[in-house]
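User: Before I run my own analysis I want an independent prediction to cross-check against. Here's the chain; please return only the structure tokens and, at the end, one sentence I can use as a sanity check.
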Amino acid sequence: MRTACFLRMLRMLRMSLVSLVSLVSLVSLVSLVSLVSLPLLLYGAPAGLEEKGEGPDKGADCRIIKIGEIAHDAVDESSGLAASQRRPNLLWTHNDSGDAPRIFGCTGTGEHVATVTLRGAAAKDWEDIAAFRYRGKSWLLIADVGDNGARRRDCVCYIVEEPVVDPGATGGHLEIPVAWKLAFTYEDGPRDCEAVAVDAAAGQVLLISKRTVPPVLYTLALEPEQGAPLVARRIAVLTHLSESGSEAGASAAPFGASPSQPTAMDVSPDGRLVLVVTYGGAFLFTRGAKASWEEVFSRGPVRVALPYRLQGESGCFTHDGRSIIVGSEGRPSPLWMIPMEDCGQGR
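Assistant: Structure tokens:
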């Protein structure tokens, strides 16, 4: 009898051990899947692979191609993105608040090319960058316009001539002077802003408020009269950004933020299209030859579904204007490209 009891105990122990091993294996498998999936969730698919937009309202059925990552150690909060107008395959970016007054050049797939310090500039809360052609030269505008608490007495945009760098080089360091700066106020009081672009043909800077509901478009003279107070004028209300498509959520909005808040803007090189990026997605507005900005933003845009972005605060047109590129804060900062022809905007 004792032998039978002993055998029963052995069988029970064996069954317990089998169950324990099975449980450990299951937990290990789940952990492995989680470890594999986490980078894909945060940073998207490997370069060259296509992805799908997020959210119930998919927007335009566009291809989304992961083209690379900005992996330079110094770039941990890529808050703006601009495609060089001096040469193809060169992007410019910068960090959010807390960095030195510097920008970073990288290839179209994210490889570091150069670090450029702006002599005569300060970096309080840089939020966007624009590349444009003006008076026969290539320029960059860096917008120090972040104001989360709407308390700043004034904001500043720095204009520099785009430096000459070789996309085939790596690790260069340059220092360039600020050509001129625009210290300005808003006509209706302080505003937080992260979306800035340049209408070079009209000689205007465009700014979209972030925290007003709905967002408001302001304009500013690119070359103001000397000595005159510089004031950003309110010219349009962007009601379309708060519609259902932008609330779908293709990005993680920071605590307290809305998916419809604009975080980046760009005007295509030919001036025909305007890109507005929000935490929730992207919007393309078409501009006629003589249309005012008020008319442009009163019409419904094309919604472009984007991949999940950890905190999507950057976007621009490519050098040739045939695609858009969007990125995200974080290190490394992923880069995705969306061809315009897929969104009904082929050239």
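Sanity check: Helices lie at 2-43, 293-298.
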